[in-house]
Design brief:
By secondary structure, the protein is mainly alpha-helical. It contains six helices and two strands, in the order H-H-H-E-E-H-H-H. Helix 1 crosses helix 2.
């Protein structure tokens, strides 16, 4: 086991929007260390979003991320031989992480020609409050609501 918690390495902001959140998003899209390819996918997706909606693609993406961000989740806790799903607040860092992962995961599952097409579709859907990533957030909140009775087991 590690003695001290690992230090978080500072992220460099992306070249186009000068935003660290974009870099974090691109790092999650990236496969096999191909960062420039991931940046191309992300920027193409934002251009496609801007064409579809006639608004700023970057702003739509931020709105989509905000719509997908969960505030509560359920955590498993074993008490007296039974496992309970206990609702808990999501840490701020984990909120962002979950929303990014969900957007990318469900955009990969979509039908489309290229990853940028799929990502653009999921971003537009999430910004409107629909799509698979938004549904995942809703399901997570619903699970927490259903298990509210076990909230007193919280640590």
């Amino acid at each position: 086991m590690r003695k001290a918690q690992a230090k978080k390495l500072p992220l460099a902001p992306d070249p186009k929007f000068n935003d660290k959140l974009v870099t974090r998003f691109v790092n999650n899209i990236m496969w096999e260390g191909k960062k420039s390819g991931a940046f191309n996918i992300f920027y193409d997706a934002l251009d496609k979003v801007a064409k579809q909606t006639n608004e700023d693609g970057y702003e739509i993406w931020k709105r989509a991320l905000a719509n997908v961000t969960p505030s509560v989740e359920v955590r498993s806790r074993r008490i007296g031989g039974a496992t309970f799903q206990i609702p808990a607040e999501v840490r701020p860092d984990r909120k962002i992480s979950l929303s990014i992962k969900w957007l990318i995961r469900y955009s990969r599952d979509r039908n489309g020609r290229s990853m940028s097409d799929k990502l653009a579709g999921e971003i537009v859907a999430a910004s409107k409050g629909e799509g698979a990533a938004f549904k995942k957030k809703e399901d997570t909140h619903r699970m927490a609501e259903a298990n509210k009775a076990f909230a007193h087991f919280r640590v």
